[in-house]
Amino acid sequence: MGRLANLMGIIKDKVSQSKAAIISKPKTLTLHLSLLRATTHDPSTPPDPKRLTTLLSFGHSSRATASAVIEALMDRLQTTHDASVAIKSLIAVHHIVKHGSFILQDQLSVYPSAGGRNYLKLSNFRDNTTPLTWELSSWVRWYALYLEHLLSTSRVLGFFLSSSSSSVEMDKEEEKVSALVNIDLLKEVDSLLSLLEQMCKTPDCLHVRGNPLVDDIMGLVGEDYLSAINEVSIRVSEFNNRLGCLSLGDSVELACALKRLEDCKERLSVLSHRKRVLIEAFWGLITELKDKVAKERAYRDERMIVSTGRRDKASESARFADRLSRRYGDSVRFSSARFGFNRFPNFLVLDSIESCA
Q1: Which one of 44, 180, 203, 254 is separated from 122 by 20 to 30 angstroms, measured CA to CA?
Q2: Nearest in space to 238 (alpha carbons), one of 155, 181, 153, 277
Q3: How far is CA 282 from CA 18, 126, 227, in A?
Q4: Distances (CA, A) of 150 to 128, 146, 154, 212
Q5: Are 202 and 130 in contact (CB under 8 A)?
Q6: Per-residue pLDDT tens over the stretch 119-163
Q7: DSSP for 227-267?
Q8: Can you give the pTM of this predicted structure?
């Protein structure tokens, strides 16, 4: 069955390329053929890097050409019923995010014009041709959702995460983050955490272990993981500097975000075996800040209890003074902070009452 499926895939690839040669316009023929060659039906090989480079090279032309690339790629992605083609098309999308030109990335970010969640429209994808393609289908659904999270996070941050074109601006990132108000800083942290949480939800399928397509996906996601924790680290460090002046609400939100992050630690640990020192330093920073936030909240709670106790004492003092006023009328005066006595014929009257701190 596997050999027959592979043979059928080869035939489909030839038919698709022949069809493109007939119906494509001369200006877009090379583009369509490059796309078809980068997204073949073969489930045992990932997209050829040279084919992907050729496809991305069209992004260095006009905006109209870049738009045609995105339109053709999305059409390929949303009309195929083959898991291998779908995964390779998603890998091509991921490569545009990471290595595409500004114009190509811009066209991807505005497709479709409505934007929104699930715009890749693969949440119901199923390919039941073989047990392998059935399990690869779960990777198609997860990978599409992951890329939607990646694009959404990139919109929040204002640049494409892990993009080579954005790396030149990284030296300005700390300065930009330091200028954000707390609510915007929390929004960016929340978006990055949603992306990391989506990374933890990779399908657990027995038949695809060691599959080249899946390995290619995990390699790309692992690179995103390193970029994401770097961005989180910058923002967490900024919160560390602001810790003493955070409102109670912001402090609670930050504590919840750090808890969500620690809950992902075990699943995220398998994503990358590179830069272990950087990764360990990151998790050390998260633990340190989480402890600081807890201590700060405990200190505030203690101050609140003390403040409440003082208000209660002050209220009791005020009630005591009110009782005296009702009993002795205008003879009671509060003109100093000392106890004094004035003798009247039949009773003693307090000259003043010391206030209770």
Answers
A1: 44
A2: 181
A3: 51, 38, 12
A4: 28, 6, 6, 22
A5: no
A6: 688 989 999 988 889 999 999 999 999 999 999 999 999 999 988
A7: HHHHHHHHHHHHHHHHGGG--HHHHHHHHHHHHHHHHHHHH
A8: 0.80
